[in-house]
Amino acid sequence: MTDFRDRIDDRPAPEIPRTTAARTAKLVSLPLGIAGRAVGGWGKRLVGQSADEVNATLSAKAAEQLFEVLGTLKGGAMKFGQTLSVFEAAVPDEMAAPYRAALTKLQAAAPPMSTRQAQRVLAQQLGRSWRQRFREFDDTPTAAASIGQVHRAVWHDGRDVAVKVQYPGADEAVRSDLRQLQRFSRLFQALVPGTEVKPLLAELAARMDEELDYRGEADSQRAFASAFDGDEQVFVPKVVASAPKVLVTEWMTGTPLARIISDGDAATRNEVGRLLAEFHYSSPARAKLLHSDPHPGNFLLLGDGRLGVVDFGAVARLPHGIPRQLGEMTRLALEGRSNELMKLLCEAGFIRSGNDLRPEDVLAYLAPFTEPLATERFHFTRSWMQRQAMRVGDARGQDFRTGRSLNLPPEYLLIHRVTSGSTGILCQLDAEIPARAIVRRWQPGFAD
């Protein structure tokens, strides 16, 4: 069991580049380093090393550099790395191991800021006498992530609390990083086939203002905590206090999903997968919101069997719940009704007018994604996700051309990201769950 998240190690943090020029130089080192190693690998092949040996070495070194750069920079670079990490299940096994290890680190840990920096932020946000609001406060952070780190403390009324403190300069660093990363989107696209990296970066950039203001996150967390208050399957910590760059919430103790993915038995992995799917599909109906940052670092399995959820900086507001049309499209694809599916996709804006797509090609593209709902239970595996990624990412195939011709309306962007990310986690868990029953219960339009 782990308190809140795995404790970070005690190694001193490397200096974090603050200026735009310094951060840009770090990010530029990624494509330059990978390109340089590719040239070196070509030379090694000429002198007799096998392609497999060279590719394994290149992948390991690229993964090591990826973690070092994204993890050290934090900010938008770190955020992108965490988001990318849920799609590692789509990477072919022969090249996945190094990236799996490096990207998994990005799900829950990053080098922390100094004690003096953290105390300065706390004084600015909670007042110079901020320590008087706590009975105890641990100056050593228990977790460090993309734009902030977490400290354990005891509130003045005796409650155990988690105190999230935003890194100084995180706002400028995030925006700068995401601008630079968008320049290198093709490089990252090659690392995770079948994942649309460019729109993912654009969407992250568009929503960063929300994530940087912890008061907005506090409001979203209060809404989730209220909707799931007393729930037997999901626990959302209540908000205790908030400021623009500091957030205080109830503490919770549990096992991180990263550990369950690596070491959990089949029964535990299946149960966690079921809980994750229930939370994902039920939230729009219950909270009118969708938790939009799905990676394993944001979920814990609590001792009482509930799924603990943290980090509500990114949410989709769905005042009317999940759109009914989405359930109808899913059902039509599952039933093979290509003409009706085509008509509905046009009405919903997924196919622009004047497009020459054929109904049978659209069905062939979408139907495999509905396989988890074709039976009462479905086994989510890395191999299944890899097949989907290779199918839609193969530039020589019809599915690739069909996918490029489809449009994703803005109102569906976060829904698509969360569904894809959650599916990635289910495949990492190797979970077998009753997906059809969960969707039937919570997704309007699917069962009728």
Concise summary:
It comes from Amycolatopsis taiwanensis. With 448 residues, this protein is an alpha+beta fold. It has helices at residues 20-46, 51-73, 75-85, 93-105, 115-126, 170-183, 185-191, 197-212, 214-227, 257-263, 266-286, 324-334, 338-348, 359-366, 382-393, 398-405, 413-429, 435-442, and strands spanning 2-3, 134-137, 143-144, 148-155, 160-166, 234-235, 239-243, 246-250, 253-256, 289-291, 299-302, 307-309, 315-317, 378-379, 432-433.
Q: Can you characterise this structure?
A:
The strands form four sheets. Strands 2, 3, 4, 5, 7 and 8 form a six-stranded antiparallel β-sheet that branches. This protein has a five-stranded mixed β-sheet with strand order 1-9-11-12-6. Strands 10-13 form a two-stranded antiparallel sheet. The N terminus is likely disordered. Among the domains are: 123 residues, no CATH class; 97 residues, Phosphorylase Kinase, domain 1. Helix 12 runs antiparallel to helix 13. Helices cover 54% and strands 12% of the residues.
Structural class: alpha+beta
Average pLDDT over all residues: 78
Tell me the overall shape.
Answer: globular
In total, how many beta strands?
15
Q: Please give the radius of gyration in angstroms.
A: 22 Å
The unreliable regions are 1-19, 30-59
Measured distance between first and last alpha carbons: 43 Å
How many helical elements? 18
- Largest sheet features: 6 strands, antiparallel
Helical fraction: 40-55%
Strand content: 5-15%
List the helices and strands and how they pair.
Layout lengths: L1 E2 L16 H27 L4 H23 L1 H11 L7 H13 L9 H12 L7 E4 L5 E2 L3 E8 L4 E7 L3 H14 L1 H7 L5 H16 L1 H14 L6 E2 L3 E5 L2 E5 L2 E4 H7 L2 H21 L2 E3 L7 E4 L4 E3 L5 E3 L6 H11 L3 H11 L10 H8 L11 E2 L2 H12 L4 H8 L7 H17 L2 E2 L1 H8 L6
Parallel strand pairs: 6-12
Antiparallel strand pairs: 1-9, 2-4, 3-4, 4-5, 5-8, 7-8, 9-11, 10-13, 11-12, 14-15
Helix pairs in contact: 1-2, 1-6, 2-3, 2-4, 3-6, 3-8, 6-8, 11-17, 11-18, 12-13, 13-14, 14-16, 15-17
